[in-house]
Design a protein that fits this description.
With 147 residues, the chain is mainly alpha-helical. It has a single domain, classed as Up-down Bundle (Four Helix Bundle (Hemerythrin (Met), subunit A)), CATH 1.20.120. Helices cover 63% and strands 6% of the residues. A hairpin with a 5-residue loop joins strand 2 and strand 3. The longest helix is centred in the N-terminal third of the chain and has 21 residues.
């Protein structure tokens, strides 16, 4: 899983360099009714890192893993990402993803097929969830870049 961990690191490092060139004005602009602003999208990625970290650490210690989903809208609102300093959010996001990447590297090959159910989703192997984490990360990075 070293390749996956390195891909997570690379995506985050590339994006964070760009994100650091923007000030508060660029990241607080309204994107339309019902859409998160850039800060809130990054906040959602922070929440995703926190939740997936727990999943990726717990699943290898079980024969199967069942974990909760989370109300993404409620989490973003509760954390008040809209009001937080942009640089603080970037720093937290980068640190959490470095942590997640290290966990991904730590998962033994023999545990990659551990069935994992998240929320009301059907069980899928831990490896699928870890690959989906990267897909999800890339998707939202592109949203942030697009403004």
């Amino acid at each position: 899983m070293n390749d996956l961990a390195n891909a997570v690191r690379a995506e985050v490092e590339r994006a964070s360099v760009l994100f650091r060139t923007w000030g508060e004005v660029e990241v607080t602009g309204n994107r339309g009714a019902g859409k998160w602003i850039r800060k809130e999208i990054l906040g959602h990625l922070i929440d995703s890192a926190a939740n997936n970290h727990q999943r990726f650490v717990r699943a290898p210690f079980a024969s199967s893993f069942v974990g909760p989903g989370y109300d993404q809208q409620a989490w973003v609102s509760f954390h008040r990402y809209r009001e937080r300093p942009w640089v603080e959010l970037i720093d937290l996001w980068v640190a959490l993803n470095r942590h997640v990447a290290a966990v991904i590297e730590s998962v033994p090959a023999g545990k990659l097929q551990t069935p994992c159910s998240i929320g009301d989703k059907e069980p899928l192997p831990l490896e699928w969830w870890m690959n989906d984490y990267l897909r999800h990360l890339k998707h939202h990075i592109e949203q942030i870049k697009a403004g």
